Amino acid sequence: MEQPNMSYIQSMSGGDKAFEHKIINIIKRELPEEIATFQYNLKSEEYQKAADNVHKLKHKILILGLEKNYHTAVAFEDNLREGNANLHTEFEAILMNLTNYLKTL
């Protein structure tokens, strides 16, 4: 599985560690709530709402350097909009990977 990294954030920051820290703290604060909302909507079979949640989450996936996983998120979002949740397991694995990575920062 692709591993999260700080490359994109570092390229945006131009070496500004305070900026990097601020971005990471925002992601750490927002991610758990966004995941919980996504999981609730998916469990409730509110696929359009879940697709909106995935739309927000996919940007965090990209910011944390998971380019291949970003494409999975895009496909999952599209599938949800069609009422299909078949990439759920793969997407949950991506979210777990992100969550575990953020715990190390």
From TrEMBL:
Phosphohistidine sites (modified residues): H55
Gene3D superfamilies in UniProt: HPT domain
Keywords annotated in UniProt: Phosphoprotein
HPt domain sequence ranges: 16-105
Annotated InterPro entries: HPT_dom_sf, Sig_transdc_His_kin_Hpt_dom
PROSITE patterns according to UniProt: HPT (PS50894)
Transmembrane segments: none
Keyword Phosphoprotein listed: yes
Xref: SUPFAM superfamilies: Histidine-containing phosphotransfer domain, HPT domain
Full protein name: Hpt domain-containing protein
Originating organism: Aestuariibaculum lutulentum
